[in-house]
Amino acid sequence: MAFSLPDLPYAHDALADLGMSAETLEFHHDIHHKAYVDNGNKLIAGTEWDGKSVEDIITGTYQSGAVAQSGIFNNASQHWNHTQFWEMMGPGTGGMPGELEKALTESFGSVEKFKEEFAAAGAGQFGSGWCWLVKDKDGSLRVTKTENGVNPLCFGQTALLGCDVWEHSYYIDFRNKRPAYLSNFLEKLVNWENVAARM
After folding, report:
1. 73, 107, 127, 193: which could form a disulfide with 61 (CB 3.0–4.6 Å)?
2. First to last CA, the chain
3. Is 45 buried (19+), middle (13-18) or exposed (0-12) by CB count in 10 A?
4. In terms of Cα–Cα distance, which of 31, 157, 13, 145 is closest to 82?
């Protein structure tokens, strides 16, 4: 099945008062994400991956430990990552659902400890990549980080929350202040109901 660029679940300017400008979303969604979709479609056309789901393409083309993944993997994975990312954020989202708060407290000691660990993972990711809250195969919750476009699907994990730490995600609004971007993401942008639903 061909990749298609999903519409944002909110207007481009809906997150502006929360620290993510319309300009960032225009560049990030309309240009960067669209490029992953367009390039991915060109690369899979006429191959064994043509007609497969994006998830099957990611798990089928991921090479553990590879310094550079294939173009098909990179574009498919970044398409999937960004599709999740848009849904994991939102304007005017409510508080954290009780079941998620309980699970984070049981796993990390407190919600604040989780946020500290998540922000540290994102700030400590060398170069481009992502930080994640995942549900592992044994059901436990963990914070992880991945390079470039690698994501939790590659390890049989369920992505509950992911934050893009490629520079295109934060440079317009935060310049080189990645820790400030991560703190703002956790305090103002996360749609905690979406995270809880993934759990």
Report:
1. 73
2. 27
3. exposed
4. 31
Exposure b/e, 116-130, CB count within 10 A at least 16 = b: ebbbebbbebeeebb
Q: How far apart are CA 125 and CA 111, in angstroms?
A: 21
Q: Reply yes or no on whether the pLDDT at 170 is more than 70.
A: yes
Three-state DSSP at 117 gives helix
Going from the C-alpha of 197 to that of each of 95, 100, 159, 179, 186, the distances in angstroms are: 14, 9, 11, 27, 17
DSSP class of 29:
I
Contact 8, 29 (CB under 8 A): yes
Cβ atoms within 10 A of the Cβ of 37, count? Answer: 21
Span 45-90, pLDDT tens digits: 999 999 999 999 999 999 988 877 899 999 999 999 999 999 999 9
Report yes or no: 190 and 88 within 8 Å, Cβ to Cβ: yes
